[in-house]
């Protein structure tokens, strides 16, 4: 086992959010089948996540910190893509529910007149889907830090 070298502070675990405080994140050196020291990597004791391997402890720390930032960007992109799919689906359902009404019924519903031949249920569903779509749109236009 090698001596522990004082290193830069590790960024939070991109998988579970564990911090470097409390010794949740630590660099460890793997061994080959003969028990000889091999590569280093940073491991999270909270979720068992680990970073890329590197020949030195310092490089393993640097890789963890770089990978952590890249993982965040990748996750943000994935979530934005999923949110966009939800937005499109909510708009589809909104239009699908509104299509159940004749144009004059929609005008009556917008004015608050409840007794339309097709009922009010689909209109309420359309409004709910429109609200969800607007929340998606608002979130998508926010800047991420």
Note down, in words, how this protein is organized.
By secondary structure, the chain is mostly helical. The protein has a domain at 79-141. The chain contains three helices and two strands. Strands 1-2 form a two-stranded antiparallel ribbon. The mean pLDDT is 80.
Question: Total helix count?
Answer: 3
Strand portion: 5-15%
Q: Work out the helicity level.
A: 40-55%
Distance between the termini: 40 Å
Assembly classification: single chain
Topology:
Layout: E1 25-31, E2 37-44, H1 57-98, H2 103-110, H3 121-141
Antiparallel strand pairs: 1-2
Provide a compact summary of the structure:
49% of the residues lie in helices and 10% in strands.
Key traits:
about 140 residues; single chain; two-stranded antiparallel ribbon; 2 strands
């Amino acid at each position: 086992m090698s001596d522990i070298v004082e290193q830069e502070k590790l960024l939070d675990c991109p998988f579970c959010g564990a911090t470097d405080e409390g010794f949740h994140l630590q660099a460890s050196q793997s061994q080959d089948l003969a028990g000889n020291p091999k590569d280093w990597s940073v491991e999270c004791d909270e979720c068992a996540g680990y970073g890329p391997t590197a020949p030195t402890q310092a490089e393993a720390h640097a890789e963890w910190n770089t990978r952590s930032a890249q993982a965040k960007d990748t996750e943000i992109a994935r979530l934005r893509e999923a949110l966009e799919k939800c937005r499109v689906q909510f708009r589809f359902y909104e239009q699908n529910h509104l299509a159940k009404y004749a144009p004059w019924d929609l005008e009556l519903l917008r004015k608050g007149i409840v007794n339309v031949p097709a009922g009010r249920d689909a209109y309420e569903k359309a409004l709910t889907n429109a609200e969800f779509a607007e929340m998606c749109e608002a979130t998508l236009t926010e800047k991420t830090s």
